[in-house]
């Protein structure tokens, strides 16, 4: 028979084991609840609300988290590696970008996991644990700002901050099914943030709601009030969509249908970016020669430029620390860092020239009211520990799509479009450098329509023939446009006619054919084509202008004045419409 003392000991031991088991269960539950997003929890509270009649703080009642590269007074910025945290002191002040948000009324609740040294795009971290993708638990989150994306996707915060160098905000947003914004390079302060690659780094932010994304943007970018403008051109980068590993129409069709519904078909255009950059970014040819990759397309070469800059600048920033501390690095990160090539002054200058020419090229293409449409990521989120993560094609595809905004410094937003094969998918819009307000406003105005069209496309099963017909028609139209530029009017008419035969309800095809007829002096045919275009799209400004010109040449002056006047109603700043209408009124009325 056991003594009372022994019995008490067993009772205490049992209680102790039960306590350990309970604590273990609580810990597991805690990890599951935050999806492994946070490094540590904290609380930075906003100041009191101003007294009426002053307006409340713009971010009142919103919570946010920051990636573990942003300084917060009294905390060590860990940079995704315990050796970094061990060898650095706590921050003496909070990064201005974080202070600005707190002063704007938001509450900061914690720091989130980043890839090791914020260098990768996969979202993995062996030291602090890889965050779980709330939208697809068996898939990676994307990186480097993985925890920040997860915190938003899991509804743990309203928005979060990350750093985007080569896709660090855009890719996790795509893989976790949330909005992600990379602002124009230099638009948001980088003070108090650990640098990765200074010429590529930007502060970015995640949100689930486009209104929150926009509110945060207005605070961070300190944007003055201005009237919201609708896009006048939305350009689909056809060669970028060829990189998609899912059916192209699952993404571009959503954008096309939404654009047609909101702004009209005349806004849509198509572009081969590789060809465009070949003509507008001459320094790329010098990069081709020095790197011996003449067969690569321009957009793929941009990815190589971006990675070369990233490695060179990372080495400049952190080589001394790596050599002195000798941290244990993930093999994939270690391989990239130690693979760094020496760049001579000529190569570095060429890369800077490419950046400058790229920004000018994108700004010229888009102007103040244009958007470029590309896939955010070519692949669905790869499986955890899957072979895709290390595949050359996955890496090349991801970096190619990210390089356009990273190299040019233009702003880009990732917009989720539901799921395909139980994984999040998305699309990206790029605006000119400095076009951040325009991009944020446009996303807000398009978001509901994009989600509606994404649901329609996901639930419908278009025949492959229907899809190929639409694509074939667009190819024919682009050939017609090229022939028109080359002043081959009859050839252009032939291509536009081919496009019309394939898709007979596209106003742009008829309007373009009318332009070619005008050049040939076939005014009756031009008038008929424009009338058809207007019946399909009553907001087609070019069709009214071209029909007005045709009618003027045919002697129908009253009707011509009506066309020019209506074009002016649709587009009040159109000088051609104003001048034509005034000239005819003076002559015949």
Automatic annotation (TrEMBL):
Sequence ranges of the TPR repeats: 541-574
Q: Does the keyword Cell membrane apply?
A: no
Please name the InterPro entries in this protein's record: Amidase_dom, AS_sf, TPR-like_helical_dom_sf, TPR_rpt
Q: Which Pfam families match?
A: Amidase (PF01425)
List UniProt keywords, sorted A-Z: Membrane, TPR repeat, Transmembrane, Transmembrane helix
The answer to whether UniProt assigns keyword S-adenosyl-L-methionine to this entry is: no
What residue ranges are annotated as transmembrane? 6-24
Matches recorded under PROSITE patterns: TPR, TPR_REGION
Q: What is this protein called?
A: Amidase domain-containing protein
**Species assigned in the record:** Dipteronia sinensis
